[in-house]
Amino acid sequence: DDPDEEYAEGTRYPDGSVKLRNPHIELMDQDILYHLALGSGSHDLVEMFRDVKFVCMGGTPRRMEMFAYYIMKEIGYKLPTGTTLMDISQYSYRYSMFKVGPVLSISHGMGTPSIGILLHETIKLMYHSKAKDPIFFRLGTCGGLGVEPGTVVISDDAIDGLGNHSYSVPILGKVVQRPCKFDKKLTRELKALADPEDPYETTLGTTMCADDFYEGQGRCDGAFCDYSEADKLEYLEGLMKSGVKNIEMESVPFAALTNHAGIKAAVICVALLNRLKGDQVCTPKEVLNEYQLRPQILVARYIKKYLQTK
Ligand code: R2B
Ligand code: URA
């Protein structure tokens, strides 16, 4: 048995399908995945999703649709003749979801509440569909700390804006903390897939998950700012010294809720800028578009390798 997998114990059935840590669900006659526009009563979720092996999440519907087409090409998946990729969650008007064989590509919006809701429903989707040992990836963007713009950062730890290595959620009026844990083996394997020939760096580091893009990330260019540029730099340099390589807005619930569900997961983000050098994202659009492919390229290498060895 793989010691890296022990944290997942008790959250999977012997065949690898996801067990829910909620006794209520199996007693319900149907479960409506409201924000995905799917339901266990209205859809044959087993038929639709049982073959899912990789759940890839990223912020925007457009990027996740493009990732779906990219991974289709990479794994040589052919759509049935006469069909095109459909946004499965189109009628939720919340998230977009595309399926390419064993890969689901879903947009998660911005911030912890948005990805938190999506994780609840996606984990339940994995449970209802009996998908075996699914692996979750977040392919995102971030602000870097002391790294060149365009650098790919694989998270090996996640902290919130107060430095907690856990996801704090008020539940029934009390704060419940769930630890952020990434699968070490998966992070290592991803790092090993960085090619020395890639024209950019791929590095491991702690990710800070902020609940805001502006003041919550120490920016001076929001609508409000009550600290100085010097205060900001002192804060960001302190974060960097403690091992933080990047700042984004979803890694904490992503790490904590996948870990709570016993699902292997990794966060791979490309830095759009070096926050020690500025706040505004002024990189040209074409350059940003190319940057956004970098986490996708790494995850595609992982998926291809996985599918080849199975
Ligand atoms: C990265 O980019 C978004 C903010 O611009 C946010 O979703 C994140 O984590
Ligand atoms: N996303 C963030 O959350 N912060 C940045 O600085 C860039 C992208």
Automatic annotation (TrEMBL):
GO terms for biological process: nucleotide catabolic process; uridine catabolic process. GO terms for molecular function: uridine phosphorylase activity. Phosphate binds at R94, R138, L139, G140, T141. Pfam families: PNP_UDP_1 (PF01048). Signal peptide: none annotated. InterPro entries: Nucleoside_phosphorylase_d, Nucleoside_phosphorylase_sf, Uridine_phosphorylase_euk. Substrate binds at Q217, R219. CDD domains: UP_hUPP-like. GO terms for cellular component: cytosol. Residues 53-304 form the Nucleoside phosphorylase domain. Belongs to the PNP/UDP phosphorylase family. This is Uridine phosphorylase 1 isoform X1.
